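Everyone, carefully examine this protein record:
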Amino acid sequence: MSTTQQGTHSLAFRVMRLCKPSFHVEPPFRLDPTDLLVGEDIFDDPPAASNLPPLLSSHVSKYTDSSDLTYGNGFLLQHPSDAMGFSGLLVLPQSFGAIYLGETFCSYISINNSSNFEVRDVIIKAEMQTERQRILLLDTSKSPVESIRASGRYDFIVEHDVKELGAHTLVCTALYNDGDGERKYLPQFFKFVVANPLSVRTKVLFPFKIVMFLVYVVQVRTVKETTYLEACLENHTKSNLYMDQVEFEPAPHWHATVLKADELHPADDSTGEIFKPPILIRSGGGIYNYLYQLKISSPGSAQVKVEGTNILGKLQITWRTNLGEPGRLQTQQILGTPITRKEIELQVLEIPSLINLDKPFLVHLNLTNHTDRELGPFEVFLSQNSAHEEKIVMINGLQDMALPQVEAFGSTDFHLNLIATKLGVQRISGITVSDTREKKSYDPLPDVEVGIIFADLCGVRLIYQVVLIG
């Protein structure tokens, strides 16, 4: 759509979009020659089907004679590819068409002199105006077009990488001297809308660290050092998109690896494949999912810099259409859950597979210092939420267990002696660590459910599954 300032001008702009043609497809109504002579039921008889080619060769040859210039065999399939309907012709664009984000807008602009006299000293400007900015595409101020003869024209091509959605205006202006020597100014505007070719939906997944003990599983804690990012791409265009690359660029201190469904291990991109076949996302709503494994790449003290940030990285997407026209998109920064690392972390390493009533058992624990300074000494005890709360699983022996200092980014393992006083599925709760020097208590260990049994009940041992619920 173009608009021009009111007034009589010798010059006028014409804008034509430069884009590749499309295939001319004729939905065919063609037949295989053998279908004219026999039916499909002949293949129900294997001996007859095996003798079919030699029997039909003489009959089919006269139907498929390439020297027939009367087009009498035009309704026959000469080759299996004829069923696709490609005529071998290309069709030039019949309209301005849709323009999508990430494409390169290329336009052929012609300024025509429709008057009967020559115009001189023509200064031409072409600018792309969006909602946020105005980009200069062409400016002949330093070298004006000397003259455009009567009924003549001056042509040029402009290109613009489309990086914004919404309304765009191609502004073409000309400053020139007409036949009377009068200096005139011609502005002309061509408007179009940029649409989104793809929608990218992401989901950040935090896996559970699974600890296996003999006959049960304990989900100990959420591991944020390893994160999974799922990206779903949906095609909103009217043509197929062939994805050359969908690469995740991680933020500092993160390392990304793409995972594939048909591989047991993360795909290794270091093999240096020369050619990777593109992934097809079909037109009109086709989707494809990508899965990336993200790991913190900087161990030790560098991990402190990651704390509090929730930026994971961004996706770089490149594709081509049916005839190879390229497109490129970059997503905004993808955010995850901020990593808030605890100063002190207490976790379960091992619990006995069998816990007998009124008999002590040892729980293997680990205490980790995530800071860059030495902490401790510590005390480990069972905290009580209320005075009337009855502890089913309690410490056997001294109620406070002393632990030595833990160095920066270090850890220590220890065993806590517990005893259960009731049968059934019971909770181990309230295991708390306190820094005796700083007089500071840390968050208690998440509750763990365990099954308490008799040592032997009619010769049958009962085993419960242990799961984390806290």
User: Anything to note?
Assistant: The CA atoms of residues 228 and 463 lie 34 Å apart. The first strand starts at residue 2 and ends at 4.
